[in-house]
Write a structure and sequence with these properties.
The protein has two helices and 14 strands. The protein is of the alpha+beta class. The strands form two sheets. Strands 1, 2, 3, 4, 5, 6 and 7 form a seven-stranded mixed β-sheet that branches. Strands 9-8-13-14-12-11-10 form a seven-stranded mixed β-sheet. The protein is globular.
Length: about 190
């Protein structure tokens, strides 16, 4: 009897220690361990860009800290907790970056959390911007009934340029479009490069 009780106590101790250890280090259930964090300033551009992650996708464009105000924008593959992006606005944000130790497979090693929305500035509707429509042998434009969509999310109003756009997407290895914004999910093609 005493031997069985000793075994039970030892097993309970081992299980308790394992549970405490997992909660400190993270476990297979998706708990994350943050080994440090920092607060940074981010600027988010007024339109999204085509990119490749696990699959073709649309990403925000960002600048961080001393890069803010430069001509260089980086693809921002992550999301910012607490931030609601709306096309047509340039955002200045203060965010906390949490660096995750041993992230999940295919997961980000950084988690972004909005600390403060510093400014949200509307861009004029006639502001011209570029989006790569075809590159790396991938065409980001699909036809849905009579509509052309970028990555199934942004509708293209191509008016008189529709035939040229479809032809270029079929023939060229790389196609870039110049656009102006019509609404949050519709843009107007003004030039094909």
């Amino acid at each position: 009897m005493n031997f069985n009780r000793s075994i039970l106590i030892i097993c309970a101790f081992i299980l308790s220690f394992s549970a405490i250890s997992c909660s400190l280090k993270g476990d297979a259930s998706g708990s994350e361990v943050v080994n440090r964090s920092e607060v940074v300033n981010l600027r988010i551009d007024h339109h999204r860009a085509t990119a490749f992650g696990f699959a073709p996708t649309l990403v925000m464009l960002s600048q961080e800290d001393e890069k803010i105000g430069s001509e260089n924008w980086l693809y921002f593959y992550d999301w910012i907790e607490g931030f609601e992006y709306e096309p047509g606005f340039i955002y200045d944000l203060r965010v906390r970056k949490y660096y995750i130790e041993n992230p999940l497979q295919d997961g980000s090693s950084i988690r972004y959390v909005l600390d403060q929305l510093i400014s949200k500035t509307e861009v004029p509707a006639d502001e011209v911007f570029e989006i790569q429509l075809k590159w790396g042998q991938h065409n980001f434009v699909e036809k849905d009934n009579e509509r052309l969509l970028i990555n199934e999310k942004i509708e293209i109003n191509c008016e008189t340029l529709c035939e040229e756009l479809i032809s270029r997407l079929e023939q060229d290895e790389q196609v870039v479009g110049n656009f102006v914004r019509e609404s949050s999910d519709k843009i107007k093609l003004v030039l094909i490069q």
